[in-house]
Write a structure and sequence with these properties.
Elements (H helix, E strand, L loop, with lengths): L1 H9 L15 H10 L2 H19 L12 E12 L17 E11 L5 E8 L18 E3 L7 H9 L3 E5 L7 E8 L8 E12 L14 E11 L5 E6 L6 H9 L2 H13 L10 H25 L5 H11 L6 H6 L5 E3 L8 E3 L5
Parallel strand pairs: 1-4, 4-5
Antiparallel strand pairs: 1-2, 2-3, 5-9, 6-7, 7-8, 8-9, 10-11
Length: 354
């Protein structure tokens, strides 16, 4: 924080366009992180998502008849548990107890920004995120097996909301009907099994408590698949209309949200924080999501083939420079020429020959 504030002080002449009369002191910036409610930045993020939603969407279709294809995943940001009480495990010896924040995110498969985001303590079970979602009928949700939640699967099935996930190894079920079987062949992507199964679960009341005196059954579809790299997968879905190959194709699309988290952790400093209380940390997480969203918009607006990491680096370097970012990303000219009327040896970027 001290380095940031000292850096701003050195850039006082370039910060006038932001309406700043002077660079903030370290204590002022720290007070802002501690006392300014992070929910303001949360609401700002979703306003920006709404504003750029149509711009970031593209015309890609998957040949599927769903109203929308959504991806769900989470990523953990490690912290010392002094920030979030009761988080993490007790270490052996004198080590400090580790905890963290977990960022759960729902994105549209044809976009690369979070449509719904929930920040929780790292020890909150992933499946609790599913309860918060408001999904429309005939939509498709794709997520990994950490979100397996049979009660929620039954509710979605009743409302014609479809999902694709991976089945847990310890899942107990009964095979009702086998539709297709196959044999593994090295280097060939193929369906190995397609069958209807039935499993049992305990329903929950409105408070989320399991009703152990009641046991219900749920019929789902299990698809076993081998990809071209000989990796074996077992998928679980409540949709019986699409082909087994389409089930595997949908789960492969989940890699899109993995890439989003990879961008976030590689290009933004989430391995250290500018504040030591929970509000400050949540504020930084929301600021990171806002920055990632705006850079995604800039990258698409510039129609550049430069990688996101390059875009992030250029923005970081030229954030206070009076350069138009989209032109900076579009222009491939690497020539310099002397500034007319400038100081001896002063150079200027040659934009379009100007």
């Amino acid at each position: 924080m001290n380095e940031t504030c000292e850096g701003l002080r050195a850039l006082a002449g370039k910060l006038n366009h932001l309406g700043l009369e002077k660079a903030p002191a370290k204590s002022t910036a720290g007070d802002g992180l501690r006392n300014r409610d992070n929910r303001f930045l949360e609401s700002l993020y979703f306003e920006l998502v709404h504003k750029y939603q149509s711009f970031l969407s593209d015309s890609r279709t998957y040949g599927l008849t769903f109203k929308e294809v959504l991806l769900i995943d989470s990523t953990t940001i490690r912290l010392f548990s002094d920030v979030l009480k009761g988080v993490g495990r007790n270490p052996k010896g004198d080590g400090k107890k580790k905890g963290g924040l977990k960022v759960h995110m729902l994105i549209n498969a044809v976009q690369s920004v979070g449509r719904f985001v929930k920040v929780t303590a790292a020890n909150v079970h992933d499946k609790n995120f599913l309860k918060k979602l408001e999904l429309i009928s005939h939509s498709m949700i794709v997520f990994d097996k950490a979100y397996n939640y049979y009660h929620q699967f039954a509710l979605w099935t009743n409302h014609h909301v479809y999902f694709v996930t991976r089945i847990k190894k310890n899942a107990v079920y009964t095979v009702i009907e086998t539709h297709k079987t196959g044999y593994r062949k090295k280097g060939v992507a193929k369906v190995l099994k397609d069958q209807t199964i039935e499993l049992e679960y305990y329903p929950e009341n409105e408070d989320g408590e399991k009703q152990y005196k009641i046991k219900k059954s749920l019929r789902l579809r299990e698809v076993a698949y081998q990809d071209e790299k000989n990796r074996y997968f077992e998928f679980l879905t409540n949709n019986f209309e699409i082909t087994a190959e389409e089930v595997a194709f949908l789960y492969k699309k989940r890699w899109g949200i993995e890439l989003l988290f990879k961008k976030m952790k590689q290009n933004f400093q989430l391995h250290y924080f500018y504040g030591e209380n929970e509000n400050a940390i949540r504020t930084q997480v929301w600021c990171t999501l806002i920055a990632q969203l705006l850079m995604t918009v800039i990258q698409k607006k510039a129609q550049t083939k430069k990688a996101f990491s390059v875009v992030a680096s250029l923005v970081r370097i030229h954030l206070i420079s009076m350069l138009e970012l989209t032109e900076l990303l579009r222009n491939t000219n690497r020539n310099f020429k002397k500034q007319i009327g400038g100081s001896p040896g002063q150079l200027k970027l040659n934009w379009n020959g100007v």
